[in-house]
Specification:
Largest sheet: 6 strands, parallel, barrel
Number of helices: 0
Number of strands: 26
Helix content: under 10%
Distance between the termini: 72 Å
Number of domains: 2
Shape: elongated
Radius of gyration: 22 Å
Order of helices and strands: EEEEEEEEEEEEEEEEEEEEEEEEEE
Structural class: mainly beta
Length: 281
């Protein structure tokens, strides 16, 4: 039978340590670290976390309309199979080395260093603000996403994003297998040192974006304020609906654009015959 805890304030370290198969409603945790450490089979509704490390080493947790305030930082580490719905996470570093994470209609206004080294992540209708979002994480699916923060997804693997707006300098560095659909990305140096990157129906404003990439595909995209693009990229397949300010030393592939204001091909660095350039103007 599931244990029920309705209401109340819990304080002190490990306040409800190692509880299992429990339902918590309108409970507040304050002034004590690790209140729900090493717990499993939990459902929380309308709860508030005010202190550090609330859910470490947990399994099979569902949270609805729950609030993590700033001091509940580093809150969900080493946890497996957690779903958070209609909630506010106002604390940084909130997920680390966790797996099977689902966030639905969640706001993360202090997302600094959130979702590091995690696996199997699903985000729907998430708004986040903070640098180094989702570093070294893998198997990520995102839909309806707003991010304001630099260095996002550094070192990520197997990422699919749909309908996003990202204001993010240096995003998708050192990544592998990334596909972004129907999104707006603003930020310098997009995608450097990555492999297998694909943008479909995207608008991108990125000074010196898309460089040092092995296998980059761009389908029906717009490039705004983007210069020195595709530098030292192998296997470029780019279909750009707008002009490109400048293209510099791609190694190989095909680049189609409305216009390229400046094409730089240094023959001591690249063989121009290996890259096909097509412009309409």
């Amino acid at each position: 039978m599931k244990k029920e805890i309705i209401g109340g304030l819990y304080e002190g370290e490990r306040a409800l340590y190692n509880i299992h198969n429990a339902y918590l409603e309108n409970v507040t945790f304050d002034n004590g670290e690790s209140p729900l450490k090493e717990c499993s089979e939990l459902e929380l509704n309308g709860c508030i976390f005010k202190w550090k490390y609330p859910l470490w080493y947990c399994n099979n947790v569902v949270l609805n309309e729950t609030t993590f305030i700033d001091m509940s930082r580093s809150g969900i580490w080493y946890t497996n199979n957690i779903t958070i719905n209609n909630s506010l996470i106002a604390a940084p570093k909130e997920f680390r080395r966790s797996s099977k994470i689902k966030l639905n209609k969640v706001n993360i206004p202090n997302a600094q260093e959130t979702l590091w080294n995690c696996d199997d992540i699903e985000l729907n209708d998430v708004n986040a603000k903070g640098d180094y979002f989702a570093m070294n994480s893998s198997n990520i699916k995102i839909k309806n996403f707003n991010l304001d923060g630099n260095y996002a997804f550094d070192g990520g693997r197997n990422i699919e994003i749909r309908n996003a707006v990202m204001n993010s300098k240096d995003s998708f560095w050192n990544c592998e297998n990334v596909t972004v659909y129907d999104s707006i990305i603003i930020g310098e140096y997009l995608g450097w040192n990555s492999k297998n990157i694909k943008f479909v129906n995207c608008t991108i404003d990125s000074e010196q974006g898309m460089c040092y990439i092995d296998n980059i595909e761009m389908i029906n995209c717009k490039l705004l304020n983007t210069n020195l693009a595709f530098e030292r990229c192998n296997n470029v397949n780019a279909e750009i609906k707008t002009k490109i300010d400048s293209v510099k030393n791609p190694y190989s592939g095909t680049i189609k654009a409305l216009k390229i204001d400046e094409l730089i091909l240094d023959t001591d660095i690249v063989d121009p015959k290996l890259t096909k350039i097509e412009v309409k103007e």
